Amino acid sequence: KNEVEQSPQNLTAQEGEFITINCSYSVGISALHWLQQHPGGGIVSLFMLSSGKKKHGRLIATINIQEKHSSLHITASHPRDSAVYICAVNPYMDSNYQLIWGAGTKLIIKP
Amino acid sequence: DAGVTQSPTHLIKTRGQQVTLRCSPKSGHDTVSWYQQALGQGPQFIFQYYEEEERQRGNFPDRFSGHQFPNYSSELNVNALLLGDSALYLCASSSPAGTYEQYFGPGTRLTVT
């Protein structure tokens, strides 16, 4: 079992729909990241969370540390939101500086 | 603030050759991590540099080496290139210990023929 699980793997929706992508993790963490990658492109950091909720434009990220779960929401989705969304965590472990990555959720927004 | 920059953007090399990729971290960041992302796969951690030393290394052979300069910029060197080294190489920078926030560069697309 992977330490970071994302669902769904693939998601297709119509423009304007409310989108939710989920991330569950099994390790203690210091921080959780949501990242975006367009086809053939580099990775863009969307959010870093250690508690609560963050909002940036149409994107909202929440985290529940007790339940080891995070969600990324997109309101009023648009075709330009089509990308792979990746959840990654900093494990709460001394001398371990690498991120543990989820497999990503491929999102397609149809006009 | 230019954010994290990487050069070159694209690169084509032949098997057996050597390649050097470069990364300049975000202003104020002193830590640089390198990742390899094969097509259709998630990023794999190569190593991280802090204070000009390799602080942690992933499961990559010695053909992959790096360096960090006093201005915190970093290089990734790959020797004796294999076809399987074809990938997007990502650099991420972060600020001093305790913040965990990482900023990623646009990546360098390496193709080995």
Protein architecture, described:
The complex is a heterodimer of chains A (111) and B (113). Chain A has no helices and 11 strands. By secondary structure, chain A is mainly beta. In chain A, the strands form 2 sheets. In chain A, strands 2, 4, 5, 9, 10 and 11 form a 6-stranded mixed beta sheet that branches. A 5-stranded antiparallel beta sheet of chain A has the order 1-3-8-7-6, with no helix packed on it. In chain A, a hairpin with a 5-residue loop joins strand 4 and strand 5 (43-49). Chain B is an all-beta fold. Chain B has no helices and 11 strands. In chain B, a hairpin with a 7-residue loop joins strand 9 (87-94) and strand 10 (102-104). The termini of chain B are far apart. The mean pLDDT of chain B is 92. Chain A binds chain B through residues 30-31, 33, 35, 40-45, 48, 50, 86, 90, 95-99, 101-104, and chain B through 6, 31, 33, 42-43, 45, 48, 55-56, 58, 88, 90, 92, 100-107, 109.
Describe the structure in brief.
The complex is a heterodimer of chains A (111) and B (113). With 111 residues, chain A is mainly beta.
* Helix/strand order of chain B: EEEEEEEEEEE
Strand content of chain A: over 45%
State the helix count of chain B. Answer: 0
Radius of gyration of chain A: 14 Å
* Distance between the ends of chain A: 36 Å
N- and C-termini, Cα separation of chain B? 36 Å
Number of helices of chain A: 0
Question: How many β-strand stretches of chain B?
Answer: 11
Oligomer: heterodimer
Instruction: Determine the fraction of residues in helical runs of chain A and give it as a percent range.
Output: under 10%
| Structural shape of chain A | globular
Instruction: Classify the helix fraction of chain B into a percent range.
Output: under 10%
List key phrases describing it.
heterodimer, A: 111 residues, mainly beta, 6-stranded mixed sheet, 0% helix, B: 113 residues, 7-stranded mixed sheet, 4-stranded antiparallel sheet, 11 strands, globular
Write the topology of this structure:
The complex is a heterodimer of chains A (111) and B (113).
Chain A: E1 4-7, E2 10-14, E3 19-25, E4 29-37, E5 43-49, E6 52-56, E7 59-64, E8 69-74, E9 83-91, E10 100-101, E11 105-110
Parallel strand pairs in A: 2-11
Antiparallel strand pairs in A: 1-3, 3-8, 4-5, 4-9, 6-7, 7-8, 9-10, 9-11
Chain B: E1 5-7, E2 10-13, E3 19-24, E4 31-37, E5 44-50, E6 53-57, E7 64-68, E8 74-78, E9 87-94, E10 102-104, E11 108-112
